[in-house]
Amino acid sequence: MRILIVVLSLLIVVPSMAQKGKKRPKSRKTIVDNNKPTVAELMFENMLSSIRKVVIIDSVVVAKDEFLSRIPLSPESGKLEDNGQGASFRNDFIDKKYFSRRDTAGFSKIYVSDRLAGQWTEPQELSTIGNADYPFLMADGTTLYFAGKGDASLGGYDIFVTRYDSEDGSLLEPQNIGLPFNSFDNDYLYAEDETDSIAWLVTDRNQPEGMVCIYTILPNGSRSYDISELSDERLRGLARISSIKDTWGDMAERNAALKRLAHNDGNGNGAENGNSISFIVNDKLTYTSVNQFKSPSSTSEFKRLQIIVRELGDDDRILKELRERYASASRSARIKMSDEIIKLEQKIMKREKEKRVLEKSIRNTENILTK
Question: Is the dihedral of CA 62, 65, 69, 71 positive or negative?
Fold first, then answer.
């Protein structure tokens, strides 16, 4: 009996001692990795591989509240204005305008209005765009640039582009236009004058409070740098626009662009109001001014013709550069360049055909009206 009592006592004591000896797990400390890149930094790294190749011919620093009046657009490219709540843009025919205004929550929205029978229609919000400002519509009437804030921005405002769907007229999903146009700061406006092949980028990167920098740019379509030819330091410098001189290549091209700017008086009015032309209508008639066109459709088609002619000149120059680089390139580089050359040749052929069709259409219309 005594043995049974001892055994029972041990069974009771041993588990009790085990419970006392058992250690509680320590709570884990949350480790914060301060070196982990942010979402914006990861976006920047992804954009580096497709940084656009542009020539920045000039820059000027101005007060933020006056930069819209400092963009010397030609009349054919429309007009930018400050509407008190944001920016406004109207096209050259003065029949369509885009503008921004703030809602009750303080968010900036972009609206569009058309001029019909001398009256502006009720503004319609471009709801797919979101928090946005500084709209600019290209001369093609379908490509819209604007500054937007959101998850797809590197920081503050970024420049985005969207296009109208030719089938149903809806806006396609906006795309961030990447580097070097956007930065971790505010990038407010991208405007392009297709008449003079000059564009402007407005940003507050590296600027004191209340000031912005207006970069004057020679756009190069969708051309990107061959990053295999650039050091990491140079690539990042180009992405951040550390020095505009780093973008200069052909000085003759830059000087020609500066002359075109000098030809413009800053209000979109050239020495001859941008109307001096030379267009052969027939063997006996050559137009020397856009004001001579009898049909509004001819005027519109001629503006499109001017853009195509300028694009053809740019593409021919780029094709020549590619062919010269191809001659001394490595085998791997040649494979990549071959695709670029073929695509560019096909683009030029298509543009040449468009040019001939437009010229024929204009001549047919004007010959009928001048009889």
Answer: positive
